[in-house]
Each structure stands twice: as structure tokens, then as C-alpha cells.
Amino acid sequence: MLETLQTLDRRWIFLAMFLAVAVPLIMGTTFPEEPSDQVMAVFDAVENLPDGSNVVMALDYDPASEGELQPMASAFTRHCALKKHNIYFMTLWPQGGPMIQRSTELLENDYPETYKGKYGTKYVNLGFRAGNEGVIKLVVEDLKKSYDTDVQGTNLNDIPLTKNLKNIQQVDLLCNVSAGYPGSKEWVLYGSAPFDIPTVIGCTGVQAPIMLPYIPQQLTGMLAAIKGAAEYEQAIINAYPELNDNLAAKEGLKRMGPQLVAHVLLICLIALGNVIYFWERKQGTS
Amino acid sequence: MKQSTLIWTMLMVFGGLSLIFIQFNRGKGEVYVREVPVEAKASSKTSPEQTYRWSTYQQVPEKEKGKPGVSFSLSRTLGLWVAAFCTLAIFSFLYGDNPLYKFTEAVFVGVSAAYAMVVAFWTEIVTNLFAKLFPGFARMSFLPDISEDVQSDLLYLIPLVLSVLLLWRLAPKGSWIARWPLAFFIGATAGIRLISYLEADFIGQIQNTIMPFIVFDSKGSFLWIESLRNTIVILGVTSCMVYFFFSIEHEGVVKYISRLGVWFLMVTFGASFAYTVMGRIALLSGRLDFLFNNWLGI
């Protein structure tokens, strides 16, 4: 048995991982989530703002990270919509445009009474600007130096939401969902830390350990990886129980089922690998 | 044929046949859209107000097919099938390196680069440079929303000249000219980054680490969880810094402190790896969700 495992084709492991992820996904298996303090800090930052506050939603990711980050972006958007906040969308990634479009469609379709046909008065899409951290530095000091027009080419002075907005220091909260550079770290370095802008972020698992030291002084809270998204969704559902029947509001929760099974498989494989290693060592010494 | 190759080939053929069977029996993999009429008004000093009408198409769930205004979208359906094919082609690398994977990988890289280039061109070169230097021409050609009061901003000649100088690098002679704008960019970037890193990372992180070992609440009660957390943070930071301090021999007390630092580092790397694994599984479940839900409709 152990000899067979020693020479096992790695494709069997790929197949096992495929099944571990696919089966719970097809079955729709979800597990209860308990929002952590860190996630509740993010929830409270959005929830405690008065209805109709101004929120910047910076979505700095592309389709490659969509599987991990889209549930966070949707949850942020949904929560802001429930609070009827005014939302300013922007991105520092060229491929971020379609990601913003998903969120604006969510606003128009799921919350038509607040957002349908209210482009420019309840939400605005500033789109992409090249320049990485240079853009952040400009928008926190003078928005219109970097953005003259919105994504449709309309002058910002002709849009009610942006007409009197000098810079994003004037907004009540900055929400950033990011997959790397430029992203959360740059928003902290050039935006929230020097100007004390209240900031919450959602980031990939790879970024999470880098961003942790900024909490709670420079960042109010962070959603780390799909686990953070699932906990945030649970926090929103706890506060707004009418969402319990809405499957679209449980994207992250749905993805945590496969996570759990895949993690159990990984732990078993690591344990098995160690057994084989010690068995080999014993064989070698005897 | 080797036994493993036979098994895998059978598995893939079986999987392919199952997909075809599901498609023919359930009729999934179709995209439906709803027509949304759009109306916009435009006016200028020289012409009267004009109304423009056009339609956009919004994707709707398949259950809404047959409802008024909802129609089958051939282009989006083709897009869905191409996306599914590309996903499977990328997954085929797990079986082994193959031409299908290489082709799809090349397509992804090319499409991403081209998309980024086109977006950057229209948002930067056209909107940010061309429209600033020649607002009248830009209004007539690409951007009708530019106000007629906007004047040329000649300051934008500086980035234009710097960009042209940068392209000089491609010329067979005089490539040294590109060093001037390059020096400016490097200097400006370093300057911008230095200040922010000093403020947010260096000073900010030192401030965050200055914390009491023993924490009491406002009533004077000892808070042991907060005290333990602070102690771990201070010990961790100090021991990791000692590990990276190579100017003294790691002997005696220093050896034990640096070894503690190694343990903290190992825990950090472990957490980082675990987060990475979680991220990769999330990406896999995202793609499988697309295949099962959007494509196959399971």
C-alpha cells in the first residue's frame, strides 16, 4: 500500500481535489459562519454611517481574481445599497471596468427603488485611470486633476454627485477590493494613512498577511479571502434577515463548502505525506 | 498504452460524452437578454437640443425566457461557450502539457495585454492628454461632452514631450535621450514612495508596536487577553528583529531570542501559505461554479 502511494501519479490528487471542490459546489453545501471581530469592524464601518453617506468603492482586480473577490465586492455593494449610500466607483486596473459593471448592475436590478435610473445622483462610475499610486495621490488631494470625466465621458462638473466633490477626503468611507498592485497597500500608504480617511478593505488570501499590521490604526477592518467574504455576508444576513432567501447574497457562503472539504483533503494528504516520509526513513535506516 | 493513460483517456471521453448528453437533454448554455431603451439629450451653443435613443442589453436568468422584451443572445451564448472551452483547455494542463493549453494561455496573455492597451489609450492618451491639449478637436472627434469653455492646457506638453523622449529608446541612434525622462520618472516615483513609506510603514508601524505589556480597563480590572496579545506582538517583533541583526554573533541569549524569532517567522509563513491555499481553492471553485452554474445549468 505504502509502496503504491510512494509512486502515486499526482493526477489522482488533482482528481481528488476536483471532486472535493465540485461535489459540495453542486450539492450547494454551506456551513454556518460566525463573523469575526475583524469582519464585524468592516460591517460596522458601513452600517454605522448615516443613510445616504458618500462611499468610494475602489475595485482593483481583474477576472483572474474574480472567483475570490467578486463575493466581497458584491457584499460591499449590497450593504451600501441597503443603507442607500451614494457610491463612487473607480478602479486602478484596466480590466477593472467590467468588475464595476457587475456592481452597478446589482444596484440597478436588486435595488431599483433607490438606484434604478439614478446614475449621477446615487452612484457614479469614474472608471479606470492609469498611473497606479499617482492616481491615488491625486484623488485624495484634487479629484478633478485626475478625473475630468466619468466612464461615459461626461464632465464631472455636470454630474450632481461629483459637482461639489473636491477630493475623496470629503467622503465618509473608502472601500477597496484588491488583488495586488496597485491596491489596498497603496490606498493605505497614499490615501487613508496620511489623510486619516476611514478605510475598509477586502483582499486576496495572498495579500492578507501583508495588510494585517495596518489594523486597527491605519485600517478600520479587512475581509481576508473568501472566508472574510462569507463572514461578511453572514453579518449582513444577520442584520437584514430578508436576504436569507436571496441566493445571490450568499456567493461567499456557497464557496465555503468546497473550501472546508478541500482543506480536510489537504490536511489528510499532508498527514499521509508525513507517514510515507517517516516510513521511507525507517526503511532506509533498517 | 500505459494503464494510467488508458484510465485518464477513458475518464476524459466519458466526461466529454456526459457534457454533450447534458447539453442536448437540458438545452443549457444559452444566454438571454432584456432590451433596455436608453435616451439622452445633448445641446450646444451652436445647435438646438437633440435627443438620442438607443438600446442596451442586460443579461437575465434563463427562467425569464419568454417574458416580454427578453430574447436569445447569440453573441453572448457564443461568448459563454468560448469561455467554457478556454476554462477546460486551461484545466487540461493538469493532465499534462499540451498544445491546447499553450494556445489558450497565449490567447489569454494577448487578449489581456490588448485590452489593457486599448483601455489605457482611450482613458489616458485621448481623454487625459489629447482632450487637454486640443479640446475643440477632441469635442468634434471623440468626446462631445467636453465643455465649449475649456481652453488648451499647454502644461500637458511636458508629459507629451517626456513620452516622446522615452520612445527614443527604440531609435538606433540617440537612445541615451530616453535616459532623461527615465531619470525623471524614477526620481519622482522614489520621492513619492519614500515619504509615504516613511509615514505609513516606518513611523506608523513603530507607533503601532508601542503598547503596554499589562492592560487594565477603565475600572482597573486586569485584561489578560489584551495583555497576552500585546506581549506576543512585542516579543514577536523584537525576536524577529534580533534574528535579522547579523552584526553580532548569534550566541548565548541572542541565539535563543533569534531562534524564537525564527518560530514567529515560521508561523507567519505558515499563515501566509494557508491563506494562499485558500485563495487558490476559491479560484478553482469560482471556475467550477462558472462551468456548473452558468454553462451547464446544474
From TrEMBL, chain A:
The keyword Transmembrane appears for this protein: yes
Transmembrane domains' residue ranges: 12-31, 260-279
Superkingdom as given in the UniProt entry: Bacteria
Record key words, sorted: Membrane, Transmembrane, Transmembrane helix
The protein, known as: Uncharacterized protein
Organism this protein belongs to: Gimesia aquarii
UniProtKB/TrEMBL annotation, chain B:
Entry superkingdom: Bacteria
Entry annotated with the keyword Transmembrane: yes
Keyword terms, alphabetized: Membrane, Transmembrane, Transmembrane helix
Residues spanning the membrane: 6-24, 77-95, 107-134, 154-171, 177-195, 228-248, 260-278
Protein name: Uncharacterized protein
